[in-house]
Amino acid sequence: MRLYLASTSPARLATLRAAGIEPILLSSGVDEEAAVLAAELAAATALTGPEMVLLLARLKAEAVASHVVAGEPIDGFILGGDSAFEIDGAIYGKPHLPEVARERWLQQRGREGRLHSGHWLIDARRESSAAASAGSVSTAIVRFADNISDAEIDAYVATGEPLEVAGAFTIDSLGGAFIREIVGDPHAVVGLSLATVRELLLGFGVSWPELWNLPR
Fold first, then answer.
1. What CATH number does residue 55 fall under?
2. DSSP letter at 211?
3. Among the four residues 76, 97, 104, 188, which has the most C-beta atoms within 10 Å?
4. Beta bridge partners of 81
């Protein structure tokens, strides 16, 4: 059973590998900002955090579903994912710029926010009678230490790590030392909830061990 990951996130890849799964990586090429803007214009209202990450996860999976490798259609399950951090009702994605990352850390130290991770799974098995898909959002509360100094924030931002991750932080790398507590699924904070993906697979009659393809 092959899993196609519609993401190039190192954290999502590492999470799956640690769980015994070597996915096939395929970049979706989705313009996230344009997709969210189009959805909000169509709905005439701003998307909530869960709505946004589920939309982008679906669009990424659907983009990869139309991908063709060497003239052959994809055969397996396609997983799209997206994450966003919410604090004070504002939704934050990747900061990209050091000054933006620093501003966010000054705002969130000593406080808590919600990390939303959207998942969308498409059944692209050749033996399937019809294409089917399902999605779900996993949310975890993240509580930051209140004694993080400005110098520590500057040092962390200087590593470049927080620039390309939702909320400007990680729990599985350099940023983990600054997080005091996670309430909920910690894998949701990494960007891929293994428990959520397992539940989605069960909806297709597939058990989690069927995806294991790495020697232990």
1. 3.90.950.10
2. G
3. 188
4. 119
- Residue recorded with tokens 């055969």: 75
d(CA 83, CA 79): 14
Q: What is the pLDDT of residue 1?
A: 86
Is the pTM here over 0.90, yes or no?
yes
Three-state secondary-structure class, residue 138: strand
Sequence-ordered list of residues with C-beta below 8 angstroms from that of 45, at least 6 positions apart, any chain: none
Alpha-helix residue ranges (DSSP H) falling in the chain: 10-18, 32-43, 49-65, 98-108, 150-158, 186-190, 194-202
Other beta carbons within 10 angstroms of residue 111's beta carbon come to 12
For the stretch 98-148, pLDDT in tens is 999 999 999 999 999 999 999 999 999 977 656 799 999 999 999 999 999
Query: How do 24-25 and 3-6 pair as beta strands?
Result: parallel
Residue 48 CA to residue 65 CA, distance in Å, equals: 26
Boundaries of domain holding 27: 3-211
Residue 21 covered by a domain: yes
* pLDDT for 216: 75
CA distance 123 to 179: 36
Q: How many CB atoms lie within 10 A of CB 13?
A: 17
Known catalytic residues?
A: 82
